[in-house]
Amino acid sequence: MNQQSLMLPIQLKRKELGLTQQQLAAMAGLSRQSLNGIERGTVNVTLDSLLRLLDILGLSIAIADPSTDRLAGGKPERALWMAAHGANVSYSGEFTTELLEQALSTGTVPTGYLAHVAQVLDEAPLQLVVKAVAEVARKHHCKPAEIWKNVRTLARITTATRDGLWD
User: Fold this and answer.
1) Where are the domains of the chain?
2) Burial level of 79, CB count in 10 A (0-12/13-18/19+)?
3) CATH code, residues 3-57
């Protein structure tokens, strides 16, 4: 989710309702400058202010879990594949989904793939790491906390730090 996907509908709805920024800002308890910044995506708005603004406009925010939607639609999870595929870019040897799953589920680094595992832990987008952990936990019928414990073990083995995140 990005700011633009939230802010543009606010501006469009305000205009559709024939409200000026000054009028809407007053209704929402904001300054006109703050509302202008919200609509342009240059102001960090609090959740309280955003919800109040959306309520006045008759808009709402829906929170969805794409992984759940994907599984419900019968589509396979892809986080492990994406993480393993991303680790293949810079290193020799193919780092497969199965190798990454093995590493995350056991806390051991497959022989010859230390750099690949370190790359996933240090360089892969955090959202991808989180999704990969959830995917492995589901496949192995265990709690994600067990897989996170393995991630910390792998981080120690590979000396992946991610600025202290894995400590």
Assistant:
1) 3-57, 67-164
2) buried
3) 1.10.260.40
Q: Which two tokens stand for residue 26?
A: 């007053």
pLDDT averaged per 10 residues, the chain (length 167): 79 92 94 94 90 93 79 75 74 84 97 92 90 92 95 95 87
Query: In which residue are the tokens 């986080």 written?
Result: 79
Q: Which two tokens stand for residue 61?
A: 């925010």
Q: State the burial class of residue 128 (Cβ atoms within 10 Å of its Cβ: 0-12, 13-18, 19+).
A: middle
Angle at 134 between CA 47 and CA 160, to 5 degrees: 90
Q: Report d(CA 126, CA 88) in Å as an integer.
A: 17
Phi-psi map region of 132: left, alpha, beta (phi>0 left; psi -120 to 50 alpha): alpha
Which pLDDT value is given to residue 72?
Answer: 77
pTM, to two decimals: 0.64
Give me the sign of the Cα torsion angle 88, 158, 127, 40: negative
